[in-house]
């Protein structure tokens, strides 16, 4: 009943707002690209606190359906081949980074943590291998100077560990490739370290802290980082389009949601400052990011827009100039042409809202 009520509310909001914009080109784009983006997708667009666009497309090929059935069978489940809805929950991979960075910033807002704090203060294991001078700012911006493994390989290895302490002990053994703050390597490492630090400060698990400080106040009822022994702040969250849109709305509103202050305006501003300056060496950046800059947990696309796209294709973004946010949920692994698709879709949504 709760899901039915939510969908009815979304449709009512759409009825009063969608007629004011022409999303026909966005409709066509979604229908034409669904097959190459996993077969299914859904896009929510939110402006002025209302969902002004909600469209799903399902063009799954026989091959995609068979793969979904095979993957589900391996997990002892029955494949769900139905259309995506605003309450469909999926793993969101690196879209998790934005959520985790925001969680860390709640501690900064409370004065319990400084962005200039060094991690050795909380995690002695890192000091023992010469990594104690890395700052929280370095962790949130992928500039720890640590040479981390491949993203997917690293996440799989992390899942075999038994505790956050084991995860930090593993990171402590990674080699350094440069001075902290001077090398950008997009990885899981910095946010894993930051997650361990806030566990020490907060005296609770990362998942409990996320639930209390982000998920509950933002009414993200179906978003969490799972129940694994080791939380994965950089890529372990599952969420829904409507939940993630609540988070984006908070970012768009400079830290507030439904009149509640979640983050300070200053923290939201700090998260959106590009820290990949000309004097920073880019050791690794995913192809789909192109020439984007990076702040804290989010890509800085241009002077007004920020994002945090995930390995499985989901694409959230906030446009501060046009005052809207959007979330595209997909699930597929092939990254070819993603950057061009993201740019084309955003351009069409921008035009529809003009």
Question: What features would you highlight for this structure?
Answer:
about 350 residues; alpha+beta; seven-stranded antiparallel β-sheet; two-stranded antiparallel sheet; 13 strands; about 40% helix; globular
Summarize the structure.
The protein has 354 residues and is α+β, with helices and mostly antiparallel strands.
Compile the SSE list and pairings:
Blueprint: H1 2-17, H2 24-33, E1 40-47, E2 50-58, H3 62-74, E3 90-91, H4 96-109, H5 124-127, H6 136-140, H7 151-158, H8 164-172, E4 183-185, H9 189-202, H10 206-215, E5 238-239, H11 241-252, E6 256-257, E7 260-261, H12 265-271, E8 281-284, E9 293-294, E10 299-300, E11 305-307, E12 315-319, E13 324-330, H13 338-353
Helix pairs in contact: 2-13, 4-9, 4-10, 8-9
Structure description:
The strands form four sheets. The chain has a seven-stranded antiparallel sheet, with helices on both faces. A two-stranded antiparallel sheet has the order 3-5. By secondary structure, the protein is α+β, with helices and mostly antiparallel strands. The protein has 13 helices and 13 strands. Helix 2 packs antiparallel against helix 13, helix 4 packs across helix 10 and helix 8 crosses helix 9. It starts with a helix and ends with a helix. 39% of the residues lie in helices and 14% in strands.
Mean pLDDT reading: 92
* Distance N to C terminus: 36 Å
Which strand order spans the largest sheet, edge to edge or round the barrel? 2-1-13-12-11-10-9
User: Helices and strands: which structural class?
Assistant: alpha+beta
The helical percent reads 25-40%
**What's the alpha carbon Rg, rounded to whole Å?**
20 Å
| Count of DSSP-assigned helices | 13
Largest sheet features? 7 strands, antiparallel
Number of strands: 13
The parts where pLDDT drops under 50 for at least 5 residues are 11-19
Shape: globular
Helix/strand order:
HHEEHEHHHHHEHHEHEEHEEEEEEH
Approximate strand percentage: 5-15%
């Amino acid at each position: 009943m709760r899901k039915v009520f939510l969908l009815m509310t979304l449709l009512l909001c759409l009825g009063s707002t969608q007629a004011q914009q022409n999303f026909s080109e966005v409709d066509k784009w979604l229908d034409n690209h669904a097959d190459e983006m996993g077969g299914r997708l859904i896009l929510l667009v939110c402006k002025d606190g209302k969902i002004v666009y909600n469209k799903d497309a399902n063009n799954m090929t026989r091959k995609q359906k068979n793969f979904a059935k095979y993957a589900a069978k391996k997990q002892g489940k029955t494949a769900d081949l139905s259309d995506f809805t605003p309450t469909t929950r999926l793993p969101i991979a690196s879209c998790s980074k934005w959520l985790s960075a925001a969680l860390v910033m709640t501690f900064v807002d409370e004065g319990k943590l400084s962005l200039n704090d060094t991690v050795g203060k909380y995690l002695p294991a890192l000091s023992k291998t010469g990594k104690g001078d890395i700052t929280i700012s370095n962790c949130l911006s992928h500039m720890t100077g640590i040479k981390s493994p491949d993203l997917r390989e690293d996440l799989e290895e992390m899942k075999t560990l038994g505790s956050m302490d084991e995860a930090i002990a593993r990171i402590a053994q990674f080699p350094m490739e440069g001075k902290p703050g001077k090398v950008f390597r997009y990885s899981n490492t910095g946010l894993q370290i930051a997650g361990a630090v806030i566990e020490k400060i907060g005296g609770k698990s990362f998942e409990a802290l996320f639930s209390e400080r982000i998920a509950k106040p933002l009414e993200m009822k179906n978003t969490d980082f799972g129940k694994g022994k080791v939380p994965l702040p950089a890529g372990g969250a599952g969420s829904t389009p409507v939940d993630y849109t609540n988070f984006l709305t908070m970012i768009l509103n400079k830290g507030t949601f439904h009149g509640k202050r979640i983050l300070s305006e200053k923290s939201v501003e700090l998260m959106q400052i590009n820290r990949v300056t000309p004097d920073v060496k880019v050791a690794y950046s995913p192809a789909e990011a192109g020439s984007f800059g990076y702040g804290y947990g989010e890509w800085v696309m241009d002077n007004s827009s920020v994002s945090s796209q995930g390995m499985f294709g989901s694409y959230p973004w906030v446009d501060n100039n046009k005052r809207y946010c959007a979330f595209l949920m997909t699930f597929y692994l092939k990254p070819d042409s993603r950057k061009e698709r993201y740019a084309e879709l955003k351009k069409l949504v921008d035009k529809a809202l003009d």
